[in-house]
């Protein structure tokens, strides 16, 4: 099926025999090219491969068009008369509505200058005109397959976040804590300049770190009195269960060490592996400080919230005992003092 924009009429009769690849992916591809002949050639090839094709001459606002049609992939001519294809690609890749749609830029040459522009524009791939049929077919299929996988992972993420929220809601003890920890750990990650990917992992961990407590019975999780040694051992297992539950987040593998190690201690007296010093993954250390600080500065049924200063003093005491990384605690103290100063 072909959907034609800007009043262009295209027939779906083609002269190309189908490329044999299976399984065929049923998907919607948008072709944006101001040159009719070049566009028709690409459209014909895609139709033969079984794709639903939307075509445009690039004269209307590309971002709005892609946002409205939500194709599975965009083939975009790099040089357009009304707008720059590279700039249009950059916009697509930064807009929340379109950033996950793969974009392939079509260029007229394979010069180094083009390659750099393609990378800078955030395109997923590029093809050189005249297009090689097999190359076009393969790239389109691969990128759409990857998009499908990412969508599946997004759904997995949503399910895990929902479970984590339900687990958090089971006990009124830490209600709303995940969202608070996520905000704070993001700010601390930025303060430490750990990089965008690490920050995303920290934010994921904020939501998922205690998901493993789902396997711990209510009679233990909601117990008012002190836990028995057996019960304590069971609670400690939440980090391993959480790591196991989150295994399907394969594109976010950096979250798993944070979940597993967020109860380790600098002197090796923590769990589950008794790791010490720099053997504890750095992001797990960063996350742990925020998790503890949030617990100390939040109201709980059995205690009132400590002030920021009191919480820092408690964390300093724990550092003296050998439980926390002294240099990281120094940075955290400066971070909190700056936060408090900005509140005044
Ligand atoms: Fe935990």
What do you see in this structure?
The protein has 344 residues and is α/β, with parallel strands linked by helices. It has two domains: 2-148, Rossmann fold, CATH 3.40.50.2300; 171-343, Hypothetical protein af1432 (Orthogonal Bundle), CATH 1.10.3210.10. The protein contains 14 helices and six strands. A six-stranded parallel beta sheet has the order 1-3-2-4-5-6, sandwiched between helices. Helix 11 (255-261) crosses helix 12 (282-296) and helix 13 (308-320) packs antiparallel against helix 14. The longest helix is centred in the middle third of the chain and has 38 residues, at 133-170. The termini are far apart. Mean pLDDT is 87; it is low at 6-23. The site of fe (ii) ion has 5 residues, from loops.
What are the main properties of this structure?
344 residues, alpha/beta, Rossmann fold, Hypothetical protein af1432, 2 domains, 52% helix, 8% strand, binds fe (ii) ion
Which molecules are bound in this entry?
fe (ii) ion
Q: Characterize the largest beta sheet: strand count, sense, and whether it forms a barrel.
A: 6 strands, parallel
Strand order of the largest sheet: 1-3-2-4-5-6
Total domains? 2
CATH superfamily of the largest domain: Hypothetical protein af1432
CATH architecture of the largest domain: Orthogonal Bundle
Approximately what portion of the residues adopt beta-strand conformation?
Answer: 5-15%
